[in-house]
Write a structure and sequence with these properties.
By secondary structure, this protein is α/β, with parallel strands linked by helices. The chain has 25 helices and 27 strands.
Length: 801
Amino acid sequence: MAGCQMYLLYALRQRKRRVYRFTAVLGIGFFLLGIARIWYMQQQSYTIETILKEQETSLFVETDASRGWQTENEKTILQGKIEKKERKNNQTRLYLNHVFLRIGDKTYKTNSVLVRLKQEPSDQSCRIGTTIVLEGNIRQLNRAANDGNYDEFQYYHSLNMDYHFDAERICGEYGREDVLAEKLFMIEEKLKEDYINNLSERNAGILGTMLLGDKELLEKEVSTVFQQAGASHVLVISGMHISCIGLFCYGLLRKKGNSLCACTAAVVFLFCYVKMTGMGISAIRAWIMFALLMAAKLSGRSYDSRTALSVAVLVLLWKNPYLVENAGLQFSVAAILGVVVVAKCIEQLFPREQKQQTQERKTGDKAANKIREIWKRQIRQNFLVSLSVQLTTLPLVAYYYYEVPVYALLLNLLIVSLLSVVLINGITATLLMCMGKIVVGRLFAGPVIMMLELLLDGIYVGVSWCSRLPGATKIVGQWPIQRIIFYYLMLAATCLLIKNRTKKSGNRDGNRNTNTNTNILLRKFPIVLIGSVVLLLVLRPVKSNHLMAVLDVGQGDGIYVRLGEDTNLFLDGGSTDVSKVGTYRILPFLKSNGITKIDYWFISHYDEDHVNGLLEVLETEYSVENIILPGKQPDVKNYQSICALAERRNIPIVYMKEGDCIRSGEDTISCLLPDGEYQAEDENGKSMILLYQTKYISGIFTGDAGEAEENWLLEKQRLWKVDFLKVGHHGSKYSSTEKFLKALSPELALISCGENNRYGHPHQETINRLKEASAEIFDTMEGGQISLEEEKGRITIQSFR
């Protein structure tokens, strides 16, 4: 498709029918060639799913971190060529290609693989370019279990990987090492050490990410701040970084030698730099485009950014067709198209001054003229670039991050202006750090590093300040593909309309000699108005169809419930086996579904697996209007934490008891326990039990209540038939008794529990009782998130997986 676009651009310039015919044939040819390429790659290797299906006698071995497989009494041997290696979390990781996997007496050729070494290798082993033989366990990649969650499988599949390998030991290593790649790796490690020794911890992480593409030193909080402010592109080695470094290198060499040497040296230097930084997708794309720019300079030909982009994308997709689903490549291509296509169209809405006006101003105040020149050359250009990139990447930001930064346009005016200065200063400081043993290095390193620290501190302060402003981000939900297509079609149509109207108005005004800025802007006003209306429409949050969703939070509970049309409830929120469950599972679910706030957050009781996710949410700026608790327990740590965070954020706390009810339209959620009379024997027995009723469906949530609490409700005659039961205590055999199920007669039984949890939930006794009650069973352990959706009065239930 990239090649088709390249020739289509050529056809549009020629405007000849035969070229259009040739383009159509070529487009079909490239399309078929791409399909053939994918088919060829699929035939060349086995996927891990295929291998494991063939191993029917395999013994499944569970590790603490994730699932691993090895055959009983047999070893799993992996052989592959080391393409790249990195250090992450004090662990060496190897990227292997040309991989062969041996299980028992069978050998399979597989896709590339990421290997994690459990033991630190010696300096002379694991050299890049050599072929290594390892013994260990296969680790399948995790798939997303809830809406909005990170999909490990999808990300690595785009890199042509479908499993990881945990290496227990190195069996052998042979072959010739890649001397250049190994030297570059050692240089990178040395530079990271220099950054740690010479810069503050935060700035070492920022500079290491900006120049080396290594996020090992970057604090998670810093990364989050840049993302929320819409400046995360600074922390990726993108086209902007490559262009600044490459053109700086070319300009420096051009003054010292001829054009051929300068172009060649710049391209080679930049290739080594890209290889040292890990051969990121955006960096490779930028390097190919830079190499084509240098080739154009040498050949005396004009350079077309769209053609160069097409060639770069075509090369990348030919090597790995699955990159089409890689977010990095998508953002990279969208940003470049924004700069080279959309920016030129927007520029026509801000026409340049006529020569006569410029001459008149030259006779005025010199200081004013200088300010106007700065506006024309720098601020104006930065504004156009920032605006165009924001417009073209907006759907991708909404699709992958579910919220858009409101002040990103203004923030990037500052960042784009400073980035080249920071990069050049960073490179200079890096060189001086390496020359620390030389007098020149010791003499100049201090002032340059001090200036670099000030620049990095200034950027971080600006980004942090923007991220803390009221309304810094707007939750829009995960855009569906239809909305993304509609947006890009409207953006393309608006650009074409601007271009056509500019040509027509230019011709008319040229004849009348009345081409004033006011007239042009008045003619563009309808176009700007249409574009603004479309932008406001697409920025409306996605409306979720979820009536209820039981999230897969591992061993814990987290349930979203909608009451009426627009009242959002959340029940519990915690886990004992999933770290950062609020950050990585609950909040992504809420944001991806366009849920901008929770009106009532219920806590059934204060156990960790029901609370710690809420505590994480309260640490953020996400809106929680009210917190509903079962009762006061001042001596419980989690209760104290909830009260402290609620007080800090001015969130009201309400204590609910039997008879209390929250209503929205015809829907209600009411409390059955606690009632002020029943005395629980343990913490689980103090669980709040809720009855949920709508005109479509009814159900009951029992928290971790056990048999005693169920018998109490039966005795007080507070139970009747419901459509679903959120099974108590994660499916424990001490809950959901036969009498309790008989009274409820639920059609659906929903169980939230973690895979291979140490309690053995759900217990087989509970499963048997549910089956005897004729309830259809859904659990998060196998199916992931359980969703009940309502559309036009019809209720459907489905699992995420």
